[in-house]
Every structure is written in C-alpha cells, then in structure tokens.
Amino acid sequence: MGNRFKVGDLEVLAVSDGQAAVPGTFYFRGTTDEQWEKHKRWLNHAGQVEFPFSCFLIDSGGQKVLIDTGLGPASMSGFTGGALLDELAAGGVRPEDVDVVFLTHLHIDHCGNVAHDDGEAMKAVFPNATYRWTADENEWWQEPDPRAATAGPGPRPSSTPRTRSTPLLPARRSGSRRGRTTGGTRPTSSCSP
C-alpha cells in the first residue's frame, strides 16, 4: 500500500506502478562504470540504479487528481509496471473515483496507465477523469520528430492540454515548474485557497 500524508488541507497518497532497475550508465548517459565506483551506495546488489514509477493521488476533499500513471502493465528493458491499480485499491481508491489525471510529461513511464487494450479497443483506465498535460508538452508532441526518416507529426493526444493559469484543484493557486522534458512540468499548488 502507498504512503498517505497531509500537505495543509490536501491529502496525498503516494503510490508506485513498479520500478526500473538499470545500470547507471544506461539512465545517466555519458557516465562510465568507473565514475559509478564511488557511488556504489546508490546501486542495488546487482549494481543497478532503481527508480520507482511514483504516482501521487491528491485529494482536496472535493476532487481527486492523479499525478502520472506509471508504466502500465508492461515489462521491458529492466522496467516493470502494472502495480498502480492495486496500489490505489489498497488505498481505497477505485479508477472511477479519479476526477483528473495530470501527466507531467508524455513518456511511457508516466502515461502507461492512461488506456488499456480490453481486446477490442483501447479504453480509458480512469473512465470519469479528464486527462491533462501542459500546452508546452502538447506542442512538443505535435512537432515532427527530427530523428524520423520522413518527418511527420507525432501522436495526436485526444484531450485538452492545461495552461499555466488553469488550476488543477478547485480554489487553489496552482502553477508549474519546468520538468525533465521540453514540455514537461512539475505541478505546484498552494496549501490554502
């Protein structure tokens, strides 16, 4: 089960969808095994860096906002996901209870539980939620991929991006700080209206 704590009048449930365990040189490109020798304390017994796919459910008492959805039911290159729904259930949260899903950026390890294939079609995992991300992230995914042999548009998200002035929670000041990717973000919110 996740870790539950309060920030002002907000209740936060920190959960994990799984984890990645990879060599430090894989995740931190340009580093060497020799450089990692002096940082062994940060490695697991197999000599790898572990990263949980952390997600946060913020409950304002009137609205539930899920920040990121993890990798989803997948296992690839040392990345294993699929625990989010069980973690939320252990915390008393059903997918139908989530009002907003906010994605900090659209990498697979942050949006892997947006939709699942039910055998006939892709279905929203959180059926009552509005899915949001920043306008900058949306713009980045609309640009042609410069690495592609024939540049074309990226995937077309089917939801409305969030602008900096749109609050994620009612009666709260909210904003964002630059995230890990070109259009990514780290959401911020005040503890009081």
Describe this structure in words.
With 193 residues, the chain is α+β, with helices and mostly antiparallel strands. It has a domain at 3-135: Metallo-beta-lactamase, Chain A (4-Layer Sandwich). Helix content is 15%, strand content 31%. It has helices spanning 24-27, 33-37, 84-90, 108-111, 135-142; strands spanning 3-7, 10-22, 49-59, 64-67, 75-76, 79-80, 100-102, 115-117, 122-124, 130-132, 174-178, 185-189. The strands form three sheets. Strands 1, 2, 3, 4, 5, 6, 7 and 10 form an eight-stranded mixed beta sheet that branches. A two-stranded antiparallel ribbon has the order 8-9. The longest helix is centred in the C-terminal third of the chain and has 8 residues, at 135-142.
Instruction: State the helix count.
Output: 5
Q: What is the beta-strand fraction?
A: 25-35%
Query: Which architecture of the domain at 3-135 would the CATH scheme give at its second level?
Result: 4-Layer Sandwich
CATH topology of the domain at 3-135: Metallo-beta-lactamase, Chain A
Using the CA coordinates, give the radius of gyration.
18 Å
Structural class: alpha+beta
* CATH class descriptor name of the domain at 3-135: Alpha Beta
Query: Any low-confidence stretches, pLDDT <50, length ≥5?
Result: 150-158, 189-193
Largest sheet: 8 strands, mixed
Identify the overall geometry: globular
CATH superfamily of the domain at 3-135: Ribonuclease Z/Hydroxyacylglutathione hydrolase-like
